[in-house]
Each structure stands twice: as structure tokens, then as C-alpha cells.
Give the backbone structure.
Amino acid sequence: MGVKFKDIIEPEIINFKDLNGRIIAIDAANSLYQFLSSIRQADGTPLMDKNGNITSHLSGILYRTSNIVEKGIKPIYVFDGEPSEYKENTINERREIRQDAEKKWKEALKKGDEQTAMKFAKRSSRMSPYILESAKELLEIMGIPYVQSFGEGEAQASYMVLNGDAWAVASQDYDCLLFGAKKIIRNLTISGNLSDLEYLELDNVLNRLEITREQLVDIAIMVGTDFNPGIKGVGAKTGLKIVKNSSIEKYIKEKGITFDVNLEELKNIFLNPNINKNYNIKWKSVDKTKIVDFLCEKHDFSEERVLSAVKKMEKLNTTQKSLEDWFGK
DNA sequence: CGACGATA
DNA sequence: TATCGTCGG
């Protein structure tokens, strides 16, 4: 879900042109979830090949990636590793929501209520090992690099920006601000009004709010994150006031609030995440034979459509870093 | 979500 | 050229 910062964040609107030549670290889990939940038929059934394998995510990766490559962007997909033990409650909660949604989806299908069916089908989306493996296989064939995180993908992607290996992180969640991503892009999609990409710079966010990243993390912990439930009644605006006029420590002491986890450890999930520093990034040209075999032969995609996406992919500059990333700001 | 054809 | 509706797998 991600931390609820909407009330204190003022994103800039940018255009695809502003990303020309840029390396973007894409939160893979975030993208895959979007594809799985939204690429569906009217009754909520995902796209599938004739063997019943889900292909919605493959469709999403193929068409979105080829589009952004055509626009001069060099993508890197960053996959999640092992979740923190602090995330257990969130994971269990999500599983229950999914299972409940699946039940309601099937019930609505029996009644022939497509709208309700679709609503619950979207919520039933599940990230299986097959989804992850097939996504990585497609990226390899497309010549798009991906990085396997040790922990949170957003933490890894944020580090990659800090380290100069990517220009920005693309994710719908604001969590990468907590992980220290200097630049963040939301709505990196081709649909939408072509120019409603949201852009955030961490330093601008902190300057405007007149707080430090540590204080932003404190706000998140009070609002609630994937790793802790937060404090009831504290939203982003209240949290901001607390860190500016007082502190999270003083506030919980005054209110007699106790966390059932160690506060410093919770902060460290964001401030000192476990990072895989041994990654290498290389763009290759798309393998036309393999992509046709994988998508058309194995997964029943239309060859005509795949080839037109392949054509867009051929714009990819396969040098390791773009000029902008060597010399740019 | 994004491709593609229809429509104007 | 822009917007809409339906299909894709």
C-alpha cells in the first residue's frame, strides 16, 4: 500500500521529454501488481494463454517497457527480496483481503454482476513465483536489466539513485522518500493525459516541509507503514506538526503510547536498509527470435503486436550509461 | 494497462 | 489528430 503522505506532498508535473536519456529504476513489484490488477477482461478474468497461465503482467511489461524505451528512457527493474519480519502483519492482512476478494469475485460471477466481479477480481491479484519468474524471463529476452534486492525493492532502487546508477525511482508509493531516493516519478505510464507524470525531489520535499529525512521517517511511523500500524488519529498533517513542535519520542511518552516493536529498529528499516551492492546493469538489444518464441509460441501473443513492440525496443541505447547520467545533474 | 480500429 | 470503445491472451 505505501505510506499515506498525500496530504503533505506537492508533486511537480513533468513530461516524458524531461526523462529523455534518463536511467529509471522501476519498482517491479509495484508495476506487476498494477498490471495484474488492471489488465483484465470485463468480468475480471486476467489475460491467460491456452494453458491457463496468467499473461496480464507479460502484456504490461512488454507494452509499457517498449513505450518508455521508445521515449528514450533506460529502465532497470528492481525486484523485492525477503520481506522484513516487521512486515508479517501486513502480509497476512493482505492475504486475507485477497482470499476474501476471490470468494466475492466468484459469487458476483455466478450472479452475472460484472462490475462487482471486476472490483473484487482486481483485489484478488496475487504475486506468485510463476509471475515473478516469467516477468524476469521476459525482461532478459527484452535486454532490460533487473536487480534482485535483498530486502525491499524500493530501498534498493533508492540506493541505486543515491549511488548514481539511476536518475530516479519510478513507483506509485511514497515509501522511496523514506528510503532516501533523491528523485521519484509516479504515473510512469503511457496512458493518462500524456503529461501527468508526477515528479518529486526528496530535498525539495524536505525543504518545503522544513524537516529532515529522519523526521519524515518519524511522520511515516506515526501515520503507519507496511512495517507498523501507526498511531490512531495521526495523519500526515498531524504527524508533521508533532515532529516540528515536539518529537515522536516525546509524543508517545506524553500520550502513554507504547509500540510493540523497538522504535529505533523501525526507523532503521528506512534509514539503514539491507542493500545489495553487488549488482551489474547492462542493456542489451532485444532478442527477436526468443521474444517471439516466448510470447507468441509459449503464451499465445499476437506476433504482429509483439513485433511492433520489438520495433520500439530497437531504439534502446545499449551503452552502459547515458551521457546525461555521466555528466548531468 | 495499452493496442488498435472506428469515428469525426 | 483527438477521443472513444473493445479487445488482448
The longest strand of chain A covers residues 74-79. The two ends of chain A are 31 Å apart (CA to CA). Residues 39, 41-42, 46-50, 53-56, 58-59, 295, 299-302, 305 of chain A lie near DNA strand C (CB under 10 Å from a C1').
